[in-house]
Task: structure prediction
Amino acid sequence: MIVVLLGAPGAGKGTQAAVLRERLGIPHVATGDLFRAAIRAATPVGLEAKAYMDAGELVPDGVTIRMLEDRLALPDAAAGAILDGFPRTAIQAEALDQFLEARGSRVDAALLIDVPADLLVERLSGRRVCQASGHPYHLELNPPRVTGVCDLDGSALVQRADDAPATVRARLAGTLGDLNDVVAHYRATGALRVVDGRQPIPAVSAGLLAVLDAGLRSMGLR
Ligand code: AP5
Result:
């Protein structure tokens, strides 16, 4: 089963992917996390991606598509994956369809977490992530139990470099048009489902699980 989580930067894709992974038992594959790991490891992909990410711009399609396909070819993704942050352009969406079709698979559901732009700045500027695994928190909207410490692995919480105000503005300005293209792609394929992302985190989770269950039942997958 392939589930695509769509949404603007800060919409809550990473937060909700953790919930869906628990429920569906398939891995959470986030291209942003893959790029950040590549940067830490100073691989050629990481060196190429860093300048784009620091500027709040999308990494070019070619390197992004290759990295994602390599990840989906690993054994733990044989039964499917929850994709977070991919596809982000119409070209990536087409490439994913072709990659899956060659394996007799497809995108079963594309779930859009719909959040208005004015809320995104607040969410991103208050976000803190854990150093060990990138688990997301928010200083006010989703605080950890102990200030500055990850509930899940005890590592320190830090601010992501691209959550600085100037980079947040660049990310939002530079990516929303491409998101609209990807949404149009999945509306045309019939896989798109939309959930109101302005609600508190548990309500968004419930909405996503409800539309996912309904969609999978209608396709005879449940
Ligand atoms: P990436 O890491 O994917 O960042 P993003 O899309 O900008 O998304 P975020 O991780 O910022 O937000 P999110 O939706 O996961 O929100 P979260 O759950 O953390 O990409 C980073 C960069 O890598 C890109 O800019 C680009 O350069 C590159 N890249 C990655 N993929 C690429 C691709 N496919 N092509 C090209 N380049 C690519 O939540 C945000 C905050 O809000 C948190 O603090 C959270 O606690 C809080 N929150 C979440 N839900 C709620 C809620 N319902 N109510 C209140 N607060 C909430």
